[in-house]
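All the exercises in this workshop are built on plain-text protein records. The record below serves as our worked example for the rest of this section.
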Amino acid sequence: MRISLVMIVKNEARTLRRCLESVSNLVDEIVIVDTGSTDQTQMIASEFQARIFQYEWQSDFGDARNFALGKSTCEWSLVLDADEYISNDCADAIHEFIHQGSAIGKIKLVDKFMSNDRINYELSYNSRLFPSNCRYSGKIHEQVESDLPRRRVDIEIQHDGYLNQLKTDRNIPILLKVIEENPEDPYYHYQIAKEYRGLNSHEQSYVHLKRAYTTITRKEGYAPSLIVNYLYAIMASGNLAEGLSVVENEQDYLSDHPDFHFVSALYLLELILSDPNQYGELMPYIERFYLRALEIGETAQEGSVIGTGSFAAHHNLGVFYEVTGDIEKAEKQYMYAKEYDYAPSIERLSSLKSS
């Protein structure tokens, strides 16, 4: 059973070598479809003995990926983007998966993005390992169309495209076109909101997430992440009045999602600070939400951000206790976060000891 690495690229010289070095020993061939590079992308690909093909860009990622899949000569295909790289030892996991029979392999994708001047890591699971006769649909954020069962496989991919805003400007026009064609589809509003978040266009992100929130059925795999991101967008755009009903209405649905409880605590603090007289009585709920996030702990749920069930919640709860005057409890929470080597908590502990 042979595996092709199948990629579409354009001007990826900055990150392509890192990607190919992480995967070249796991695959039998590398298929690179170039959509118009003018840098050293193709030269780097040739260093890895890639089979390189040219494709005239049609503003359609699904079509480009299907063109690339059509060039594979192997039974299985692994799909990566150039700003991604494999970060774990997964050779055995891949071998075991492809010998269990036909299925779609969902792999862990760790997205880096900036929030509050810190790097955060968001988890998702994408269909990236599958029989080479499978095909994609969708012009952007394309999906593998197949009735085959989907199972998680222990492959971990790091992605920093959102962190460095490498493709945001390219994706937005395509998404706007797709939204024009599918105005009630919450998925595309959710995806364009993430693009706008990468550009710090918080009002635009809020508008699209609000639209998506009104049309989700909550059966979508991305619905919890959408709701959490909606609350962040409400805060970032200053539309605080709209968040309280979201927090109240989603507590049962998202009872086991630490990200929801974490962002609810953040939101309530913002709301209280905006009008202490009206909302001050909500202050105890901040502590409850952080404690609930810590009770749940870290999960591998779609869209979860690493730390919301551990070090980040400990730190924020420590800040809450410090601000409300309970220094002993604050130090305890900072100590918990310090065990994760969380720099903000280490700084707060140092400051408290010197004061």
User: Anything to note?
Assistant: The mean pLDDT is 94.
